[in-house]
Structures are given as C-alpha cells and as structure tokens.
Amino acid sequence: MIAGGFVPGYAEKLASMLSHPSVHVLGHRTDVPELMRQSDILVLSSLEEGSALVTSEARGSGCVLLVSEAAGAICEHMENALIHRVGDVSTLSQHINLLQEDRQLLQRLRAASLRLVPEITWNAAGVKLLDVYREVIAEYTGAKRSCDGTM
Which residue of 39, 59, 125, 136 is most buried, as measured by CB atoms within 10 A? Predict the structure, then answer.
C-alpha cells in the first residue's frame, strides 16, 4: 500500500511497477494510523530526511521499520528495524524478502520495537527536555554564584 502522492512525473516513471497486482496506490488518506495498524512494515527509503515523524508513528502502530540510514528514524538494525544504505535497492529488496520469509524475525523485531515506543513519545521528549533545562539552569546558577563569590 502506498499512501500519499507523487511528485510530478514520478508515478509515470514507476507506472510498470505501480500497476503490479500486489501494489495498491491509495492516494492521500486521513486514516493513516489505521493503515499502519493493518500493516507489517513501513518502508521509508529516503535519500535525505531530517527526522521522520512517520517512523515513530509507525512503530507505535506495530510496523517494523525498513528505512534508509538517512531516514532519521530512532531504531537499530536487526534489533528493532532493518536499515539499508541510501539508494541500496538490493539490500532493501533483501530486507522485504527476509521479513516475508522469516515471520519469527518479523515478530521479534516488532516486539522489540514496541517495547521501546514509550521512550520515543512526545511525553518522553518533554521529560528529557525538562531535564536538560534543569541541568542548564543548575549550571548557570552555580556559575553565577562562583562569579559573585557567593559559593
């Protein structure tokens, strides 16, 4: 299933592959979380990306990530996801086939991924940010006391 749109000309370039009976081009959707819950994997073979929020959403929905090293995904290869080099179509194909053939590996990666989901939520990020703020404030007030001679 491919959710979303294509940049101009890209769908035409991929037309022969997109017309395969196993490929379903869904277009833009509003039910992406439900689609993810129905899926085993999320493929994000980005050439460049900052930090893909979709990968965290996919993990929370139970998808195993198959991502490029540029995806910005919070994951570890063969621990809770499969990661390939940018542009390495051969390895990505091997990863897809591996999970299709080895359902135990798929389940192991999914379980490991889901165990870590609480660590990658917005709440977890907020707690971490608060801890950093507290640390910086403590360093600042400690340094200020030293400068003032009020140790």
Answer: 59
78: left (phi over 0), alpha (psi -120 to 50) or beta: left
| CATH number of 31-120, picked from 1.10.10.10, 3.40.50.2000, 3.30.420.40, 3.40.50.720 | 3.40.50.2000
Element containing residue 33 per DSSP (H, E): helix 32-37
Domain edges within the chain: 31-120, 121-151
| pLDDT (tens digit per residue) in 7-59 | 889 999 999 999 999 999 999 999 988 999 999 999 998 888 766 788 998 99
Whether 64 and 110 have beta carbons less than 8 Å apart is answered as yes
**71, 67, 62: which is closest to 91 by C-alpha?**
67
The phi, psi pair for 66, rounded to 5°, reads -120, 100
**DSSP letter at 45?**
-
What's the half-sphere exposure (Cβ side, CA atoms, 13 Å) at 94?
A: 8
Question: Tokens for 135?
Answer: 């640390």
Smallest CA-to-CA distance from 54 within 39, 72, 81 is with 72
